[in-house]
Amino acid sequence: MTLLIRTLEYLRFYLFWTLDFFKGSNTQKHLTDIAYKIENYSSPKVIALRQESLKKILDHAVNTTDYYSKFKNYHSIKDFPVINKNIIRSQEQEFKSVIFLNKKTKTVSTSGSTSSALKISQNKNKTIRNTADSIYFGKISGFKIGYKLLYLRHWDDVLRKSPLTKFMQNIDELEVVNMNNEYISKIIRNIEKDASKKGWLGYPSGFELICKYLDSINSKPIKANIKSIITMSEGLNNYTKKAMNKYFKSEVVSRYSNMEHGIIAQQKKGSSDFLINTASFWVEIFKIDEDEPADINEPGRIVVTDLYNYAIPLIRYDTGDIGAINYNKKYPVLTKIEGRKADIIFNTKGEIVSSFIVANVVEYDGIIQGQLIQEEEKEYTLKLNVTNNFNQESNVIKEFKGYLGHDAVIKILYINEIPLLSSGKRKATINNYLK
After folding, report:
1. Cα-atom radius of gyration of the chain, to the nearest Å?
2. Nearest to 355 by CA among 334, 369, 366, 340
3. Taking residues 416-423, what's their average pLDDT?
4. CB burial of residue 2 (10 Å; 0-12, 13-18, 19+)
5. Cβ–Cβ < 8 Å for 207, 199
6. Are 425 and 371 in contact (CB under 8 A)?
7. CA proximity to 123, closest of 317, 310, 313
8. pLDDT of residue 283
């Protein structure tokens, strides 16, 4: 059986690259380009190549789309406005390149967790670039083509793959919605029986539930041959990071990506910083409430220019997320990614507070889940899902006053479950005061 599994791994690996070879080695060319540009970020040649890629997409946008046509006399990217999901949705046709109107493109759609969904067309070269990005960032986390991918997320009818595709891509679709102990136990049994090399990819909240279950049965480390664990879409708390490493013997890294673009940044093993995908994107940080660049290490809006989507150029696209950049390293990194601007929590002095103060609340004995809501300038509700073992309410309030301010008014609300969004994700924070 082990020989058969190894044979299938090699077959999938060589079949993928053989097919790519006969199609012109496009994925391999992109992969080589990504590795070279990221790993030689500071070289004069790579700096020139990045500038060339940026100029190409800007020129394409002003010459082939109605929206950007008024910027034909631009001098630099600084002459372009910041756009967002709502602007594109209200003027969708104006963003489309006339060159690709009658050509076959791929349509990707945002989940619509925070508003109605947005559909973005991607030209073929962009979809190949995304595949190469996935291969590169998977590889630096320990995942290789041919390994089995345990993919833990919400699978709707649009995302769900056919049995043949799942077999060819070696993917196990694991559903994060309504996870219970019986389902988790089944997942663990199946991966223990399977001797193949594997990678986990999924929502941290789903991994947290798996770890809590393994805690409850006093489980020993799982013999599952896990080579890579990547989390996405939600904040990764310290408990889940440590527990996944404990049970599956693989370091967890967090990925920052979205449906509109692809992989924007990802942690490297041994670092909490997010390596920015400078090969495929031009990333800027703007002040929270102004279209002006933020200072170095100042938290601000993450604004992304896609260097490869020519079907709908996304120039200076406000992702809605908050982060901070540090350029004083070998490669530029995002030192912070705080999630949606609409969900950012402020302390009583008006300063941004990291969402991880909520993510790590599960380290208290008896707390299963938590969610922090800012109701007014100095008023907060902390929702807690707890077991009968929990008896540290005063300690939790004291800790949160340390984060939010000693004049913060914190109300504890005990609930049975933090509800999932339609995407299968959970919000750690909500800001009703801003709304």
Report:
1. 22
2. 340
3. 71
4. exposed
5. no
6. no
7. 310
8. 96
The phi, psi pair for 290, rounded to 5°, reads -140, 145
User: DSSP letters along 100-145, please?
Assistant: GTTS--EEEE---SSSS--EEEE-HHHHHHHHHHHHHHHHTTT--B
Going by their DSSP bridges, the two strands 409-414 and 252-258 should be labelled as: unpaired
Give residue 278's pLDDT. Answer: 96
Output the pTM of the full model.
0.84
Whole-angstrom Cα distance, residue 237 to residue 264? 20
Beta bridge partners of 165: none
Task: State the amino acid at position 385 in one-letter form.
Answer: N
Give the dihedral of Cα atoms 226, 230, 234, 235; nearest 10 deg: 90
DSSP code, position 142:
T
DSSP string, 165-192: HHHHHTEEEEE-TT--HHHHHHHHHHHH
Distance CA 373, CA 343 (A): 9
Confidence of residue 369 (pLDDT cuts 50, 70, 90): confident
Domains of the chain, with CATH numbers?
A: 2-340 (3.40.50.12780), 344-431 (3.30.300.30)
At residue 114, the pLDDT reads 46
d(CA 410, CA 371): 12
- Element at 29 (helix H, strand E): helix 26-39
At 315-360, the pLDDT tens digits run 999 998 888 998 877 888 898 887 676 678 889 988 878 776 776 7
Residue in 89, 95, 91 with CA at minimum distance from that of residue 66: 95
